[in-house]
Design brief:
The protein contains twelve helices and 18 strands. With 422 residues, it is an alpha/beta fold. The strands form four sheets. Strands 1, 2, 3, 4, 5, 16, 17 and 18 form an eight-stranded mixed β-sheet that branches. The relative contact order is 0.18.
């Protein structure tokens, strides 16, 4: 995946510090040790993770932590990581088994489109966040494809239609209603249709796909949605497939693209968006049928990041595999990670690129979700004890992350192929 000499240099360079929080001897604890620990930010070697109850309490040397817990697991040649965060899924809408998703290493998932549910899980079950229905134009996507007989939608549907003449007060009231009912973010559709190879341009059991172009929200309506969402401290995700929708999203200061767009976007427009801080949930694997336009769009944010990282520009990608599609795993997707690594790197892949990708699925994904849960996506003190472990070196081979040998949610072991040691 990358030059082994580079990895060797990185191993020598990573010193890692011991995190610790003073605590009384715990009634329920686990001390898990492995050759490699990715804590959500950096990699430490030959370290132990102390879990007490439903929280991470410390990451440090086994000798310093062994007296604090009698239940110990020495995993040896293995890699420990925070549980992965899937930022673009359709678990509820497609009725995917939450237990299957959790068993395959995703401990937190954000459903984007579908019934609005309050935040749930996280204590031995999949933590589920929901954006609720996608805000869309009347007669537009996604209701025109997935619910063609329902032109209005609602909080229990894939979309919620906004009439062409809806006023500012009416649009803002819809946003407030979604957030009051637990929406983790607001998702909008700016999809005019017609992109070659796009999954939404293929039949979905409802007859012919409607002819493009599809109706879009007005620019003012998009502006009002974004403004009201930001007032409440949430972010706006936009489903965009081509340049018209992308320009509208950029004009309104949309925070996140729910996909890498399918059709080619003007490179200068992409450059400006990335420099302005726009993030992209990747979903590259599931949209691979879009072809050259998708891959060209995916390359640009990575190049812009490489050019401006020294100036403080953040890595623009957030991991997302669109769980529920039949062509991707219903868990961690190693191919998605692989694509992110190579599309987001410069002329050569190095260890910092590996760390960027892993952060995009853990700590950076948590920061983008803005859940308010301290430490989510990390193995830092008082973070939720959501972690996974795989036999072998997952830093050099992403595929093995798809099949975790240990999965913990809120301190509870969901999958465990290791035996306790003394």
């Amino acid at each position: 995946m990358f030059n082994l000499k580079t990895l060797a240099v990185a191993v020598l360079a990573c010193t890692g510090s011991t995190y610790d929080v003073a605590a009384a001897p715990p009634a329920s604890c686990k001390l898990i040790t492995a050759d490699r620990v990715f804590d959500g930010n950096d990699v430490q070697f030959n370290k132990s993770v102390l879990v007490v109850g439903d929280k991470v309490r410390a990451v440090g040397d086994f000798a310093a932590l062994r007296s604090r817990c009698a239940t110990r697991y020495n995993l040896g040649d293995a890699t420990i990581m925070p549980g992965f965060i899937e930022s673009h899924a359709h678990v509820t809408f497609q009725n995917v088994g939450k237990d299957k998703v959790l068993e395959h290493g995703i401990t937190t998932v954000q459903d984007t489109g579908g019934p609005l549910l309050p935040p749930q899980g996280g204590n031995g079950t999949l933590r589920l966040l929901s954006t609720g229905p996608i805000l869309q134009a009347q007669g537009g996507y996604p209701l025109n494809v997935f619910s063609p007989d329902d032109t209005v939608g609602g909080l229990d549907k894939v979309g919620l239609a906004i009439a062409p003449g809806a006023t500012e007060s009416e649009v803002r009231a819809i946003v407030r209603q979604l957030i009051a009912n637990g929406a983790s973010a607001i998702k909008i559709a700016l999809e005019s249709g017609g992109e070659a190879g796009a999954p939404w341009m293929m039949p979905h059991g409802h007859g012919e796909v409607p002819a493009a172009p599809w109706n879009l929200l007005s620019q003012n309506q998009v502006n009002w949605i974004v403004s009201e969402t930001h007032i409440h401290g949430k972010k706006v995700l936009a489903h965009v497939g081509e340049s018209v929708g992308f320009q509208m999203a950029k004009n309104a200061n949309v925070d996140v693209m729910a996909h890498i767009p399918c059709a080619a976007i003007d490179h200068e427009l992409l450059h400006e968006a990335v420099r302005d801080g726009m993030k992209f949930i990747t979903t590259i694997d599931t949209l691979a049928s879009c072809g050259e336009g998708l891959y060209a769009n995916a390359h640009v944010p990575g190049h812009v990041y490489q050019e401006h990282a020294a100036d403080g520009l953040e890595f623009p990608y957030i991991y997302g595999s669109e769980i529920a599609h039949d062509n991707v795993p219903w868990g961690i997707n190693g191919e998605e990670l692989h694509l992110m690594l190579h599309l987001g790197s410069g002329d050569a892949v190095d260890f910092s690129d590996v760390l960027n990708v892993l952060r995009a699925a853990t700590s950076a994904a948590a920061a983008n979700l803005a859940t308010g849960i301290p430490g989510l996506g990390s193995l830092t003190p008082n973070a939720p004890a959501d972690l996974i472990a795989m036999k072998g070196n997952a830093l050099a081979r992403f595929k093995i992350i798809e099949y975790p040998d240990l999965v913990m949610s809120g301190g509870k072991l969901v999958v465990n192929k290791f035996s306790p040691t003394r």
